[in-house]
Write a structure and sequence with these properties.
The complex is a heterodimer of chains A (about 700) and B (about 80). Chain A is an alpha/beta fold and about 700 residues long. Chain A is about 60% helix and about 5% strand. Chain A is elongated, with a radius of gyration of 30 Å. In chain A, about 50% of the residues are buried. Chain B contains 2 helices and 5 strands, in the order βαβββαβ. In chain B, strands 4-3-2-1-5 form a 5-stranded antiparallel sheet. Chain B is globular, with a radius of gyration of 11 Å. The chains are: A alpha/beta (about 700), B alpha+beta (about 80). At the A-B interface, helix 4, helix 12, helix 13, helix 17 and strand 10 of A face helix 1, strand 2, strand 4 and helix 2 of B. Strand 10 of chain A pairs antiparallel with strand 4 of chain B, so a sheet runs across the interface.
Amino acid sequence: MKLFKKRSCCGADAESKKVDDYSMTIGFIGNPNCGKTTLFNAYTGANLKVANWPGVTVEKVEGAYKFQGEKIRLVDLPGTYSLTSYTMEETVSRNFILSDEVDVVINVVDASALERGLYLTLQLLELGKPVVVALNMMDIVLKRGMEIDLHRLPEMLGVPVIPVSARKRTGLDILIHAAVHHKDAKGPDKLIHEHKETSSHVHDHHSEFTMVYSDAIEDEIDVVENALRARYPDMRNMRWHAIKTLEGDREITEKYPLDIPEAGKNYESEIINEKYAFIGEVIDEVMVHKQRQDKLTDKLDAAFTHRIWGIPIFLGIMAVVFFLTFFVGDLIKSLLEMGIGALSDAIEGGLTSAGASEIVISLLNDGIISGVGTIITFLPNIFILFLALAFLEDSGYMARVAYVMEGVMSKIGLSGRAFIPMLLGFGCTVPAIMASRALENRRDRFKVMLVTPFMSCSARLTIYILFAEMFFAQYAFLAAFCMYVLGILVAIGVSAVLHLIDRKKTVNYLLIELPEYKMPDARTVGIYVWEKVKDYLVKAGTTIFIATLIIWALMYFGPTGFVGEGSDSSFAAYIGGPLSVVFAPIGLGFWQIVVALIAGISAKEVVVSSCAVLFGISNAGADTAGFAAALEAIGFGPLNAVCLMVFCLLYIPCVATLATIHKESKSWAWTGFTALFQLVVAYVITLIVYQIGALIV
Amino acid sequence: MYLSEARVGQNYTVKKIMLPFETQRRLEALGMTDRAPVTVLNRKGKGILIIKLRGTRFALGYNITKNIEVDADEAV
């Protein structure tokens, strides 16, 4: 399986060689959240992220599928409601479909939202490319007691309609078969319409086009088409260009200007209304029991989007998520710790009796097992956190959060929608920042990019678990939960300040589709969680492993050679010592902590693994008593632990996050500013915490 | 009247949309055009709404709803 990502829409030259290997290219397009990516995953075996909120796919992704000995290139496009040229995704999707690269378009339509889906279908049909409709989520429709006339629908649309279930993987081969055979289709198949009004138009368009407008509009289309033909004789698909001209489409009218009075008029509303009117006709004929609406969604929404209880319920849900992450995660964690402890002892015993050198034993035990082993023990907590997030995302609740938070967010100049990336930041900041792409407003995106790193990600969770449990025993959960709340408050506070000083105040327009609730799909959740767990393990084996080795080397070696554990004559002490002066006012003036914090920029878990190595604890997770004793010996108490947690929550995000911010903002200056800004905020807030705390304690 | 003043459970017909070009176009693409039928499902605050438009639920902020003029449909 081949999977490569491409960011531009038409950079065909560099890719054309690759494209030649394929017999044809199929583009997947459909509304946001209609199941395109699930379908794409089913074909390609890829594990792209799927969830139940609009805007999950923000990039065009490609894959390959073998069908009857032919290699077919499949392209998954970001979801779109229409093919106008007003947003980046729509322009990308439209230009890609119009390009010669695409042979057939598979239009994925959510059968449970047929009305909305068909609007895009009608626009695609006007584009003139061969289209095959994949009717997804038929199971939901049937479950609700509705039926769709699969014989009548293709007659009315003039293209094949194939029922599929992306989740249950049915109808997949039939769909590709239809696409392959439809490749050379010119115009629609036989159309059978029974329109109520009789047309007196000169052309009998009803046998030619699926979407036929009222006579008044058709007359205008004729005028524009003639003008286009006269001025741009080589133009393909005059009708589409004529319709776009009448809609006042910016791209088309700029590219193909006309100086006839018709070109100046704007019929967009009429054209849209007539399309929906035709869709109404289609729905009336093909949908049986259409009145059977989804009662479940209405019932759940009555609670989840309640005007008063909405926010408390949201906070309650988040509290449950973190409770599970802490307590259930810890139960499993203790088992893992015992295993790793036993391994460490066995290695030490085995190597000592085998007569291995002191340095090798130290490297394995004090370096790799303390560092990486400690990180591995947090896997159960990470697993449960992502399981809970996957559940929230796939159930359909995520989009509701935008509505619930709109009131608060609009006060700080952001749209409720901006809260979705921030919420995703509890999992990992990298995808959260990428999700900010779904925000229409560029200034909003930059704001969200600046504050999302304050949302406490899963890597920082490891720091809280370790230090909170060490110093606050039964209040550990509370201490950690406070960190999450502090993160949210700082993010909101910073946004509020930005909103106050922002002279070019932008008005925000919350507009988001609320999908119907559904039971999260085991496979989707499974893929999601597995990808995260895999990422975590890979990170433990690469970034954290290397960082741990470097820390071990800096700690156990000094200018005089191998100096052994906890030595003040190690390289680490020489690096951290002078800097600890700067960190003293915020309660972190310990050279070991300073080194761990610097190392933590590579990945926040490294703060934990580095501490384990720096304090010579073989397994920091299991041996908390030994760790606490080592910390106390240098005068590191509960207040210092709080300061460490606060500082880790807020200071420079990890390298992966910085790289993502750079990729998304395309600006080193902004990336640098973000890093510096976080550092300053972290320093100031930790300073306040420590100075006030020192007065109380 | 404006959509921001709409009551839950009531059906409305859009009369006029007065929003910046891009937002208006985005709404139109979703079927929010003049004469489009809208049902209000839920509301909070000054006029943050959940509506049903052409078969789909949408959440709309106050900045949108206060700029959409509607007529209440006759009760059937």
